[in-house]
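idk why but the lab printer keeps eating my pages so im just putting this in chat instead. protein + zinc ion:
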Amino acid sequence: MKNKLDKLVKIFKANENTIHVITGAGVSVASNIRAFRGENGIYNDEREDNLQPEFLLSVEALKTHPMEVKQFYKDNLDPTIRIEPNITHILLAQLEQNNFITGVITQNIDELHQKSGSKNVSAIHGTLTPDGFYCTKCKTQFTFEDYLNQVYCEIKGCKGYIRPNIVLYGDCLQDEPIEKAFEIAGASNYVVVMGSSLLVSTVYPFMNYAELIIINNEPTYFDNQAYLVINEDLSVVSKYLKEHLVG
Ligand SMILES: [Zn+2]
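predcted complex ->
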């Protein structure tokens, strides 16, 4: 393992500002946010109603199963619960400050990269904030608390359904984060993917043309295409990189 970590340190030192990072849910697990996939992921939860998380996170479910969707957010994605960045978020902010990386493209909606000081961040699935809900019909903004009290908009009999301002299954990606992500991926020599099982295709366009480095606690389908694969706890890897790159 140490050989691989040393190899990674060398790559960072030799490729200043031509490396970008893609992060997935695994990066936030140490901040007590559950990953969707993997051993203890939300997707493994047994539900009596057999509704799948992919479905509960879809636009369709907001219309057909609003109460179940609301409960799912309450149980798994409550944006009012205070969470703190962990060593991996802090490392990535420091790598950016020290010009080792161009920025971070994240699948996470928890805003922890921004909170830890990363400036160049593309949250391609959006960010779930306590006031980031809106009526799909009249576009009135709502808070998470409002949403918990009313899944339908009650303004002047509007009755539109309320949804979070993030990218759900069935949504298109938004232009702004996509443009930002292409800017971050730019002319990278390497892309480092951290804490993602790489099953969600939205990040694939930002993995092209660069040598792939995968750091994940379990294997991914892209391992055989990767230049370097490190299957290790992210906190361990981040601690090592922090010590050897930013002190
Ligand atoms: Zn409305």
